[in-house]
């Protein structure tokens, strides 16, 4: 009996249901965090077994070949949210019981309504609480109920920024000592690239010689209508604004603003940008502009800085933690301040050179290896 208990305590489950399929928008954000967590665990000495619960067979090829890392694949596809939620709260707890886990890590705010073992949960943000008006009703109700339920019974909570940690403590009523900040990281392929590679990509994609770049979903909390208003004030449109990313929800105001200000053709919408192309998009841009009102962390500014691309970002939520003094931080509600920052980054070559060097240094502070090591330390303390 003692041997069985020890074996169970050394078996950890990683709920990876949002491990996105290749070439889809789900390969960003939370999916990146999950993939790097699993890969990081393969490189950290861990005395036990790690079971990774996957939504389909597609991620199997990306799973590291390590003896103590094993996959559990759902027999039905969990790409649709309704299926995933039903599975997570009905069949999944029974699988956890069968697998005799010592610890479950829920990677996106919500754990099963019941778990036979202690739970660690990662809370990425609480945007559905802070800005409920811009979230669909069903999503808001589900996350509101189950995130609070999960956080209050979790043995420990991972917050991906200090700002998110404070939000969890204040909005969910969780004791501060149960919430640990573990920052995200940046991939090694986000780096300054040879100029000839960048220029070849520019020609291949038909990109202009100079452009401002935004990356992320097109949704209200990204503050894109104000960015469009600021862009309208900075000149004649000789430097286009490229808004890269898929349509989320509540994006009608954005397109109405573009049309109202006569900026059709000056603001480009390439849609979803494949992960493997992102370093080239960043390298080819004059600057990344990220005016979001609310972020749990903010990967695009970090990735851009790692590429040596100047960053203009919002001074709200977690973004000052990520950007530090390496970018221009502005009040996201102040259109004129945002316009002034855009003018400066487009016209001041010395400033761009300074921001490039500062950004490269700031980006080196965030690594996926560090994230994995700190997460394993948390597992050990919980076990």
End-to-end distance, in Å?
18 Å
Helix and strand succession? HEHEEHHEEHHEHEHEHEHEHEHEHEHHH
Strand content: 5-15%
Class computed from helices, strands and strand pairing? alpha/beta
**Structural Rg:** 21 Å
This entry's quaternary arrangement is single chain
- Overall geometry comes to globular
Describe this protein's structure.
- This protein is of the alpha/beta class and 383 residues long.
- Strands 3-2-1-4-5-6-7 form a 7-stranded parallel β-sheet, with helices on both faces. It has a 6-stranded parallel β-sheet with strand order 10-9-8-11-12-13, sandwiched between helices.
- Helix 2 packs across helix 16.
- The N terminus is likely disordered.
Compose a concise summary of this entry:
With 383 residues, the chain is an alpha/beta fold. Helices cover 43% and strands 15% of the residues.
Task: Summarize this structure as a short list of keywords or feature phrases.
16 helices; globular; 383 residues; alpha/beta; disordered N terminus; seven-stranded parallel sheet; six-stranded parallel sheet
